[in-house]
Design a protein that fits this description.
single chain; 12-stranded antiparallel beta sheet; 14 strands; 54% strand; globular
Length: 292
C-alpha cells in the first residue's frame, strides 16, 4: 500500500544559480509523485545563461484548389540561440535572446538569415512566464520584421505557467498569437490554444522537474487576409501533440517536442477564382544545450 502523503509547507528549494518557489507535498508519497502539488513560478537568477537548439521540420502538401497538383515542399529550420537573464526590469524579469546561428533548407533565405547572427532581442517576463514587454531590432539596430517573426517563433515554444498549484493529472490552457498572422496580414490574431497536463513530478537532489503533456490546437475560426491585392478568408485547423520537461532549478524547459498536422484553407472573398487547401505536417523540438 502506498504511504499516505503528508503535505509540506511552501519551501524555497536552492539549486545552482536558481531559486524557484515550490509548493511540495512529497513527504511520504509513494514514488515521490502521487498527491504532489507544485507552484510553478519563473524566477531565474540574474546572470544565468542558457543555450538552446530549436529545430522545426515542415512538410507542405497541396490538397486541392488552385494549387492542386503542385509539388509539395519540405522545409527545415535550425536555430541556435542564447538566453541571458539580465534581472528585474519594470514589471518582470529581463531576458536578452541572441541568435547564434540560423539555417534553413532550402537555402533561399540564407543571406537574410546570416544577417541575424549576433542579433539580440529583449524580452520581459512576469513570474508566470508571460511576455509583458518586447523589443526587437535588426542587425543595424533598426526595427526588423524578420527578427520579430523569429522571436515570435521562440516565444511560441514557452507557455505561461498556471496560477494555482498543480499535481499529476491537472491541466491549464493558454493562447499564443502565431507569427503567420503578421505574414498574411490577418484581420485578427491567429491564435494557437495549448493545454498542458502534468504527467509526472520528478525529484532528484536539489532539483525538481515536471513532465508535461502538450496539446496545441488551431480552432479554425475564419479570419480575413490580404491576398494578391484582394481579400480572402483563411481557416487554420489541426493539432500538435507532444511533451515537455520543465526544470525548477533552471526555471526553463529542458526539452520539448511537438508534432502533428495543420490544415490551411484559403477562399477568396470574390467569386470566380479557386481557393487553396494545403496540409502541413510539422515537428518542432527544443533542447537545452547548456546552463551556466
Amino acid at each position: 500500500m502506498p504511504t499516505p502523503c503528508r503535505f509540506a509547507r511552501p519551501a524555497m528549494i536552492p539549486a545552482a544559480r536558481a531559486t524557484v518557489t515550490v509548493l511540495l507535498a512529497l513527504a511520504g508519497c509513494h514514488g515521490g509523485t502521487t498527491g504532489s502539488k507544485v507552484t510553478l513560478r519563473y524566477r531565474p537568477p540574474a546572470g544565468a545563461t542558457y543555450r538552446f537548439a530549436l529545430d522545426q521540420e515542415s512538410s507542405v502538401r497541396f490538397a486541392g484548389g488552385s494549387m492542386a497538383g503542385v509539388p509539395g515542399q519540405d522545409i527545415a529550420m535550425h536555430i541556435y540561440y542564447t538566453q541571458a537573464v539580465t534581472g528585474p526590469s519594470g514589471a518582470g524579469i529581463g531576458v536578452t535572446v541572441t541568435f547564434d546561428s540560423t539555417t534553413m533548407v532550402p537555402g533561399g533565405m540564407a543571406p537574410a538569415l546570416d544577417r541575424l547572427r549576433g542579433v539580440s532581442s529583449k524580452l520581459v517576463y512576469d513570474d508566470r512566464m508571460r511576455v509583458v514587454g518586447a523589443e526587437f531590432t535588426g542587425p543595424e539596430g533598426e526595427a526588423s520584421p524578420l527578427t520579430a517573426r523569429m522571436a515570435s517563433s521562440l516565444k511560441g515554444m514557452s507557455f505561461p505557467l498556471p496560477d494555482q498549484p498543480v499535481g499529476v493529472g491537472d491541466s491549464w490552457t493558454s493562447e499564443t498569437a502565431m507569427p503567420l498572422g503578421d505574414v498574411v496580414g490577418a484581420s485578427a490574431p491567429l491564435k494557437a490554444r495549448t493545454t498542458l497536463t502534468v504527467k509526472q513530478i520528478q525529484v532528484a537532489g536539489s532539483d525538481t522537474s515536471i513532465v508535461l503533456a502538450i496539446h496545441t490546437s488551431f480552432p479554425g475560426d475564419p479570419v480575413t487576409i490580404t491576398l494578391r491585392g484582394g481579400t480572402a478568408t483563411l481557416r487554420l485547423s489541426g493539432a500538435l501533440d507532444g511533451e515537455q520537461l520543465y526544470s525548477f532549478a533552471r526555471s526553463v524547459p529542458v526539452r520539448s517536442t511537438r508534432s502533428g498536422v495543420m490544415q490551411i484553407d484559403v477562399q477568396p472573398a470574390q467569386g470566380g477564382s479557386e481557393g487553396m487547401r494545403m496540409a502541413m505536417q510539422q515537428r518542432v523540438t527544443l533542447r537545452l544545450l547548456d546552463a551556466r
